[in-house]
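Why do we care about 3D structure at all? Because function follows from shape, and shape follows, mostly, from sequence. That is the central idea of this module. The next example makes it concrete: a single protein chain, its amino acid sequence, and then its structure expressed as tokens.
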Amino acid sequence: HDNVPVASAPLDLSKWRNVPTWLLLGGGALAVIGLFVNYRQFSYSWLQAFMFFLSLCLGGLFMVLVHHLFDASWSVPTRRFCEHVACLAPVLALWFVPMLANALFADKSHVIYQWMAEDGHPDHALRAKRYLFTKAGFVVVAAFCFGVWWLFSSKLRFWSLKQDETGAAECTFAMRKWSYFGIFLFAVTLTLAAIMWMKALQHQWFSTMYGVYYFAGTVWTSLATFYLITAM
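And the structure:
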């Protein structure tokens, strides 16, 4: 009887409840300071953070698409969480605004995309990409990417929630149909985003695998995050 473990009192975390809020406020204050102290470095840091969190959202969207394409069972435990996270990708359009402002309105000494500051005589690498590497092209690509991510994440979530209500097989067929088209547009938009927002920092550098590298990172990071949260 003496060896029977005694249940300890529940862990009291109430005093730590406000820590995340204070961390967010502190991080926001430091970001504002960085904006005025070194705008160029602030833009680079913002871009890095944005692309990281975007990778989690796109990884979630990819997992949902794959789930329906292959009628997988191993992804069922994380499916609903992936749907939630995928729907945040369009919301990140708001956090894309500082990058858009830097690309379109920053002067030559502060813009992080140097090809936007080329005057009159662009190099050969830029001339070869002149139909895409323009300010108008930058805006159109961003609108196209966020539009596609909004369309497919919202449609897949809509039919998923409707299936919870009705249990009808038509919901499964609808999600498969959207996934058929979605996987191709997902590949196109992810590649465009990686090239226009990251690789274009050095427009003279050429890589046919850059989009694949970023895609692999989104899946790896998303799987690790989703299964960690599920395990908790």
